[in-house]
Amino acid sequence: MTTSGEQWPVGPWVPPGWASGPSAPKPGTVPLRPLHPSDIISGVFATAGRYRKPLYLPLLVLALVCSLLLGGCAWAALSELGRLPADGGQPADGQFTRAAWVVGIAFGLALVCATVAYAATAALSTTVLGHAVLGRSVTAREAWAQARPQLGRVLGTQLLTAAAALGILAVSALPSILLGVTLNSPAPALYGLFMLVPGLIGALYLGVRLVIAVPVAVMERQRPAAAIRRAWQLNHGAWWRSLGVTYAVRAVGSAVSQTITSVVAAVALRLVLSDALTTEQLDVSTLSAADLTLLIVAVGGAVVLTTTLSAPLRPLAVGLLYLDRRMTRENLAAGLAAAAGLPPELQHG
């Protein structure tokens, strides 16, 4: 990774076959040449393995904070809902309004927490990847210190991209809504649901085309709007490649997470619910509050842990897609080889 005030090195454009042979230098987790999909996938897991402390220690702390916040929000919301009459009676004056406010605030805080955690994961993963590609060591404290100033750019880029995708969906549904309002009939709006199909396709295309916007914002220190414009141009002609690589990495991470969670849940059920199991049915009434708490903590902890472990995989893949586009189109590989301190003869393949 370059130092705090620098951008990634840029070299003149050369044909995309530069250093594509086996002699391509590899100071870090990927060779410095245009990358094959297998290079990207293996580079993701190599980075996650070699840089697990700077990558996962800050994320585990973040996951713990978010879990405590979300747990508190859920407890407050459930406690307030529990005060409402359970027999269908009318709630006391202001009771329903207070419950609605508590639930709304809890949901809003949960949404904000998830959004910030997603942005922090992307910023930290991209920062660590910058060190991994150059083969440089970095501590968890250093990685977080370098990623933290990028949170604003990353969050703005993600929100702007999401707003653009939602705008496409809104435009695709707008004609049918206007027609329904004009004719005072819900039928056009129902038929207008079919118009969401091209809107969904357009939103998918936009999301994949702009998938490298966050690495642009972090590695090139670009503002959100500029990062989106740059990503749109840089990722031209690589839509299917971007879709395939990100889907493959996400599928692997999801499979591992589900496997671990299933195993933990099965063990917890076996240990905690053994006394409540009959021949064919589960008697939940025999469970104590301690048993239920242990079960919830075990399964919830497994979900948090596996989510944290798999969260950086997609940002790492997206970061490598960004590097691939620049090494293919702008000879970034030569600049990275020089930044890694390789001898001049290795900097040119």
TrEMBL record:
Keywords: Membrane, Transmembrane, Transmembrane helix
Stretch list, region Disordered: 1-20
Ranges of biased composition (kind: Low complexity): 8-20
TM spans (from-to): 55-78, 98-120, 159-183, 189-218, 239-272, 292-323
Name of the protein this chain belongs to: Integral membrane protein
Species annotation: Kitasatospora cinereorecta
